[in-house]
Amino acid sequence: MKQISILGCGWLGLPLAKSLIEKGFSIIGSTTSVEKIAILEEARIVPFQISLFEDKIEGNLDLFLSNSDVLIIDIPPKLRGDSKENFVAKIQNIIPFIEKSSVEKVIFVSSTSVYEDNNSIITEDTIPNPDTESGRQLLEAEHLLQSNSNFQTIIVRFGGLIGEERHPIKFLAGRENIENPEGPINLIHQVDCIGIIEAIIELQQTQSENWNEVFNTVAPFHPTRKEYYTHKAIELNLPLPEFDYSKPSIGKTILSDKVKSVINYEFKKKTL
After folding, report:
1. Is the Cβ–Cβ distance between 256 and 218 less than 8 Å?
2. For a disulfide at 31, which of 25, 36, 88, 189, Cβ 3.0-4.6 Å?
3. Rounded to an integer, what distance in angstroms lies between the CA atom of residue 184 and that of residue 166?
4. Where in 8-136 does DSSP place strands (E)?
């Protein structure tokens, strides 16, 4: 039985941990909340309370990583609002702990925000040029991890995350003057987020040549924002969103062909 440490058992990390346990893996999981320790224990996850800061780490990161072969990093950068943080510094702080641990392979959950919105078709060969602070810091964190020779890192760049209880239409319903009505959507369901990470882990148990790779992971479904969100509002009986056509729409279309060709993954949620 392989042991995996998941740094960040939140919206994605917790159900991912539960699914991996069902597949026979031993899972060590972290949370920043003492209240969530019992939830992890109930899910048969060995819990650790770990908080990352720009200048320190609270919690026993050495023990958290001890005896794990794989580390999954799923901690989003907190760059919205007034209390913006230095996400790159947090990643820098944990790298020395990874270097001296048993971890040989890292899976870093990143985002397609590392690509700019310039109305182009994006593949893994596209040179990232982020136009947001979040995208910039994620890209720098990616480089820090993949340039380290003490372990191997796969970067998984997810599009917009949706799930049964999480969908952007709940925020957009009834709103006015929504920009980029003709921009394509680039979303991925939680089910496929979990499936892709598990497929990577499964493949790399027998192969190692595909580590230090980058995968764009977005459902192969790209209607315009207006088409998609109008349809979802009608489907869920929500107020229709209204869009602003005063400026040209900008966006990008993310292709995930590499996920299929390299790790043989078929999306379970091809339409959303």
Report:
1. yes
2. 36
3. 19
4. 26-31, 46-49, 51-52, 57-58, 70-73, 105-111, 120-122
Residue 138's region, left for phi above 0, alpha for psi from -120 to 50, else beta, is: alpha
Taking only the tens place, the pLDDT of each residue in 159-207 is: 999 998 899 999 999 999 999 999 999 999 999 999 999 999 988 777 6
- Residue 227 has φ and ψ, to the nearest 5°, of -60, -50
Instruction: Round to whole Å and give the CA distance between 142 and 90.
Output: 12
Tens-place pLDDT, residues 220-235: 999 999 999 999 999 9
Q: Considering the entire predicted model, what is its pTM?
A: 0.96
Determine the Cα angle at 257 with ends 15 and 208, to 5°. 70
Instruction: Provide the token pair at 15.
Output: 């159900």
Tens digit of each residue's pLDDT (9 = 90 or more) over 69-94: 999 999 988 766 555 789 999 999 99
